[in-house]
Design goal:
The protein has about 140 residues and is α+β, with helices and mostly antiparallel strands. It is built from 4 helices and 6 strands, in the order H-H-E-E-E-E-E-E-H-H. The protein has one domain: Aspartate Aminotransferase, domain 1, CATH 3.90.1150.
Amino acid sequence: MRSLTKKPMNTEEYLDQLPEDQHEALIKLRKQILAAAPQAEEYFGYGLPGFKYNGHPLVYMGAAKHHCALYGNIPKGFDEQLKDFKRSKGTVQFTPEKPIPAGVVKVIVKAKMKEVEERWGTGIKKNDRRMKSGITSKR
């Protein structure tokens, strides 16, 4: 890490304290996550850069001394795609030299979005759907 003089309070401060290779790896991961979930909201939680979807945590990203990581319960069905990465229930570790493939990141994020929708709904209220579709009330 570049500077451990102060605890990061936001994503930019967090990323700026990383070595260049990890910084660049997490910038790429950030772009991949936002491309897969453009409606996701970035935030800083649990000391890590994170992303919320419909107001609920989606995934986090971070770095340790010898690896970077994508955090969040990874949905079932990714064993084959992630077989070359160290994993636990809530973490996929990778290195800047061997990142998680962009296509796999996209599918994981989409699956996590689906989980959020199934558990908490889409976050779109009935009136919001009308407004988005161009239908308005005549009252």
